[in-house]
Amino acid sequence: MSGTGTATGITLHAAAPGWSLDADVVVVGSGVAGLTVALRCAAAGERVTVVTKARLDDGSTRWAQGGIAAALGEGDTPEQHQADTLVAGAGLCDEEAVRILVTEGPDAVRRLIATGAQFDTAPGTGEILLTREGGHHRRRIAHAGGDATGAEISRALIDAVRAAGVPHAEGQGRIEFIENALVLDLLTDAAGRTAGVTLHVMGEGQRDGVGAVRAKAVVLATGGMGQVFSATTNPAVSTGDGVALALRAGAEVSDLEFVQFHPTVLFLGPDAEGQQPLVSEAVRGEGAYLVDANGVRFMQDQHELAELAPRDIVAKGIMRRMREQGTEHMYLDGRHFGAEKWENRFPTILAACRSNGVDPVTETIPVAPAAHYASGGVRTDLRGRTTVPGLYACGEVACTGVHGANRLASNSLLEGLVFAERIAGDITAHAEAAPGEPVIPDPSRLPLLSYETRYEIQRIMTRGAGVLRSADSLTQAATDLERIHDHAAEELERDGKTAEPCVETWEASNLSLVARVLVAAALRREETRGCHWREDRPDRDDAAWRRHLVVRLTPERTLAVHTTETEQF
Ligand code: SIN
């Protein structure tokens, strides 16, 4: 392997690959999106390699509590689901993407059930039980294990891929896994087509250290970037690796300013950092309500759906009341559920609260907003294709256009399923010629940041680009982020020195890149819309801003920001 590298020519500092293997498709990530692509591609005869950063079940999917939204209930229709999704998206959804989501969703859920996922059903009738969440005008959320929906979906898909991992009869594909592996960069051939990935495998064995998987298609299903903030519901692995890789590969990303802050995350103190316990919106869907420091409900006069208003409205309502009262959190009251309902319907949340010293059966739960979901990501068309040939994105890492400025609750597992099937359909429908020999870029480009900068970046982002933003706070965040980046870049330029390449420094560098893009977009969007709340621009401005902010990295290592109308490409 030799040659010129990715479209931008920018890669992470890493050793040259010391080993390689061949596949047809590389799937990066093992949540609902990644495993569904893998299963469908393997069933069509493709050789699939799934690369995952930790263990197969360590991604965001398994933490999903509330459930998966689909028009499965009596009287519900895809059109009603579409209407709720568009309202939550605050004018920036791609209507065709949403139509696909809601019309293809119910059958995709049935296929997931056929794959082995067991949803909660009514005793006697066996009908799927449906609950409500914010922004839904109907009971539409299927759940499993009470509040352990993601864990059940993850279990079912992992069982299925493990079964498919055994080499199949002739003509069938197979799935191979590489766990504990951080994907570094995209490989392209001399014509700029996707040719695989470079990756670093932790541990010892035949394939440890930096290697390469050659393939005609790469599917990014790496999840989110919640770790860019100090407190988040996302696991530690959610460091924006997929978005950063796509940027370095020359792909466009869009809507990164729309970070959804979940309104009800268990409050563990003002300095709590890292992954925080979620208190699902389904708890409010079943009748729990928010109260302030005086025990007074405050959402009823803010929206017709009160506590079940779209998530951005509830998060803002909480923040406003916290400010008025000078408190650090509000409370969720579900004491009226009684012990039996808590134990049967919300066992995970009950256990998390109790292990943190709060008993929801007898006490109100202290809650505050925390970073939860990236509504934007790598820009794709309706088949999950990015702007780089052969590179796909699916799930939270992608921006398909279904979420607009604010994702509707429980639409994300559905998006992962529906668009995974579309991606697999696209890959298997086209007998692409094998890419040419991958070209390995010259070493250098972006400086690596030290491990400690991860925490510095998180603090900068929490201070400047959190639930409440302003031109001042964002400008300060941009300045602080550039200072960290420039310092490392200057050192590299001057002394040829950069931080030691390892998982921690690659992650810190990825976080730095996505943070800089997020802040650049948030600064540029001079309005308040969906989950982007600018205190200095409190109104939605459709005339100027019913547009997407699209960002790409230039070969000169600067960020090019441009706007498009609401349609995807
Ligand atoms: C929740 O259970 O509240 C989270 C569900 C989601 O983010 O879609």
Tell me what the structure shows.
The protein has about 575 residues and is an alpha/beta fold. It has a domain at about 260-370: Flavocytochrome C3, Chain A, domain 1. It is about 35% helix and about 20% strand. The strands form 6 sheets. The protein has a 5-stranded parallel sheet with strand order 7-3-2-11-20. Helix 1 packs parallel to helix 4. The protein is globular and about 65 Å long. Residues about 1-5 have low confidence and may be disordered. Succinic acid (SIN) binds near residues 65 and 282.
Helix and strand arrangement:
Layout (H helix, E strand, L loop, with lengths): L19 E3 L2 E4 L3 H12 L3 E5 L16 E2 L8 H11 L6 H21 L14 E2 L9 E2 L6 H17 L8 E5 L2 E8 L5 E8 L7 E6 L2 E4 L10 E2 L8 H8 L4 E2 L4 E8 L7 E2 L5 H5 L3 E3 L19 H15 L4 E4 L4 H8 L1 H9 L9 E10 L2 E3 L11 E3 L4 E2 L11 H19 L23 H12 L6 H25 L7 H22 L17 H4 L2 E6 L5 E6 L5
The structure holds succinic acid.
Name some characteristics of this structure.
18% strand; binds succinic acid; globular; 23 strands; disordered N terminus; Flavocytochrome C3, Chain A, domain 1; 569 residues
State the total count of DSSP E strands.
23
- Average predicted local confidence, pLDDT: 92
CATH domain class of the domain at 259-372? Alpha Beta
The unique ligands bound to this protein are: succinic acid
CATH superfamily of the domain at 259-372: Succinate dehydrogenase/fumarate reductase flavoprotein, catalytic domain
- Please tell me how large the radius of gyration is: 22 Å
- As a percent range, the share of helical residues equals 25-40%
User: Number of helix segments?
Assistant: 14
- Stretches with pLDDT under 50, minimum 5 residues: 1-5
